[in-house]
């Protein structure tokens, strides 16, 4: 699953690749230069710009997401293309921020562990916590023993970690909510636009049908006269 | 309903707020718009306005009348603004995250305080290795990202405001374009 992907160490943001155009109504497979500046190649339409990837993010995963969403929505015109790209960018941003929250908790867990173990360990706490953070089996075993002796679990450690990072977590949550709000607003706009498009299509179909009736009527009148 | 006296007071206050008075202050405030360059109109950059025209053609189609073209231009300009803001934010985040010396202001203060204390005649006795390790330490990974989001919140919020305005302009421009197309279709 794309959502579960962690930041990958290798940056696959295709530095040397150029942009490929978008054929409307098909699944866009765009490749963008990570170092692309504001403009695009002269004489080409660049309504989307490069993907919103930052260092360490996987361009292939982004392309997969874009493909999935495009295949589901099937953009019918350039405006829907723009909205699809917006939705994908916002979903990507929300993924990034959720990953950040999880990684922040993991990276700061040693600090919460230090707080929890402080009343339980007399000497060598710093060293024990450092070894635990390095995932040394002996340190992990010792930490588990100490926690069990105080009738505690890792939940207590994570609770302390959360308290220590509460400001950051709140800020990240607000940013996630903002991205999701914008995504929902865009989805509503697609609905509204498609309703208008549907109205136009209905009118066009009615006009074509009226035209056909007229042709049929004329033919039938001619046929009757001949008879 | 705002009372007449309140309106008078507001106008009097507004007349008193004339911005910076000194030449230096006026020169500085004149450069405000160039800080992010995001408030500049898209027409001020030749290459960008060329992109806008290409986008207008894609949105309006080749046989569009003048009204549809005008409305499509509004959409294209707003979309170009949205793209400019996002690009700037991405560049800002990438540059900040790839800065190897980026750290919190509090941490910088602590390091300076330590160096000052070490330069005093009665400097504390600390192992050199620990001092060097402390001075060279910088946040990494998710901690660095969280720090950037927290410390650069003001800049990021400013960019967010530009994006919100551009998105709003784009939304209403698209609605106007859709409505014009619908009316045109009804006339046919």
In short:
With 227 residues, chain A is mainly alpha-helical. Chain A has six helices and no strands.
How would you describe what is shown here?
The complex is a heterodimer of chains A (227) and B (188). Chain A has a domain at 59-182. Chain A has 227 residues and is an all-alpha fold. Chain A is 66% helix and 0% strand. Chain A has six helices and no strands. Chain B has a domain at 34-101 and 155-188. With 188 residues, chain B is mainly alpha-helical. Chain B has helices at residues 4-16, 23-30, 46-60, 66-97, 105-119, 128-136, 141-151, 153-187. In chain B, helix 4 packs antiparallel against helix 8. The mean pLDDT of chain B is 87. Classes of the chains: A mainly alpha (227), B mainly alpha (188). Chain A binds chain B through residues 37-40, 42-50, 52-55, 78-79, 82, 86, 89, 100, 103-104, 106-108, 165, 167-168, 171-172, 175, 178, 182, 185, 189, 192-193, 196, 199-200, 203-204, 207, and chain B through 45, 47-48, 50-51, 54-55, 58-59, 75-76, 79-80, 82-84, 86-87, 90, 93-94, 97-98, 141-143, 145-146, 149-150, 153, 160, 167, 171, 174-175, 178-179, 181-182, 185-186, 188.
Derived from helix and strand composition plus strand pairing, the structural class of chain B reads mainly alpha
Main sheet summary of chain B = none
Mean pLDDT reading of chain B: 87
Portion of residues in helices of chain A? Answer: 55-70%
Shape of chain A: rod-shaped
> How much helicity do the residues of chain B have?
over 70%
Compressed to H and E, one letter per element, the order of chain B equals HHHHHHHH
Radius of gyration of chain A: 29 Å
C-alpha end-to-end distance of chain A: 71 Å
Tally of individual helices of chain B: 8
Q: Which segments of chain B are poorly predicted (pLDDT under 50) over 5 or more consecutive residues?
A: none
Key phrases:
heterodimer, A: 227 residues, mainly alpha, 6 helices, rod-shaped, disordered N terminus, B: 188 residues, 8 helices
């Amino acid at each position: 699953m794309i959502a579960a992907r962690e930041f990958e160490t290798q940056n696959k943001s295709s530095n040397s690749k150029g942009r490929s155009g978008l054929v409307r109504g098909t699944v866009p497979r765009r490749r963008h230069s990570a170092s692309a500046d504001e403009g695009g190649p002269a004489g080409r339409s660049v309504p989307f710009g490069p993907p919103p990837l930052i260092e360490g993010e996987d361009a292939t995963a982004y392309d997969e997401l874009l493909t999935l969403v495009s295949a589901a929505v099937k953009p019918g015109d350039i405006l829907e293309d723009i909205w699809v790209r917006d939705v994908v960018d916002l979903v990507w941003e929300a993924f990034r921020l959720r990953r950040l929250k999880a990684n922040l908790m993991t990276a700061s867990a040693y600090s919460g562990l230090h707080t929890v173990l402080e009343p339980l360990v007399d000497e060598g706490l710093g060293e024990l916590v450092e070894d635990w953070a390095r995932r040394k089996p002996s340190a992990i075993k010792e930490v588990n023993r100490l926690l069990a002796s105080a009738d505690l679990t890792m939940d207590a450690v994570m609770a302390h970690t959360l308290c220590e990072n509460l400001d950051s977590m709140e800020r990240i949550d607000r940013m996630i909510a903002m991205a999701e709000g914008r995504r929902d607003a865009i989805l509503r706009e697609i609905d509204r636009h498609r309703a208008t498009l549907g109205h136009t299509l209905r009118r066009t179909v009615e006009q074509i049908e009226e035209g056909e009736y007229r042709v049929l009527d004329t033919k039938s009148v001619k046929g009757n006269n001949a008879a | 309903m705002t009372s007449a006296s309140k309106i008078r007071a507001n106008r009097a206050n507004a007349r008193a707020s004339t911005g910076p008075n000194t030449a230096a202050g006026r020169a500085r405030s004149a450069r405000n718009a160039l800080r992010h360059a995001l408030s500049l109109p898209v027409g001020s950059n030749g290459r960008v306005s060329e992109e806008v025209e290409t986008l207008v053609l894609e949105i309006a189609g080749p046989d569009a009348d003048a009204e549809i073209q005008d409305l499509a231009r509004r959409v294209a300009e707003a979309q170009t603004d949205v793209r400019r803001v996002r690009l700037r934010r991405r560049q800002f985040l990438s540059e900040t995250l790839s800065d190897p010396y980026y750290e919190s202001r509090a941490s910088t203060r602590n390091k300076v305080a330590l160096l000052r204390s070490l330069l005093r005649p009665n400097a504390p006795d600390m192992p050199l290795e620990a001092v060097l390790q402390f001075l060279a330490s910088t946040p990494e990974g998710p901690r660095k990202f969280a720090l950037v989001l927290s410390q650069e919140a003001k800049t990021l919020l400013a960019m967010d405001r530009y994006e919100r305005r551009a998105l709003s302009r784009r939304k209403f421009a698209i609605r106007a374009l859709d409505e014009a197309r619908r009316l045109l279709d009804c006339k046919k």
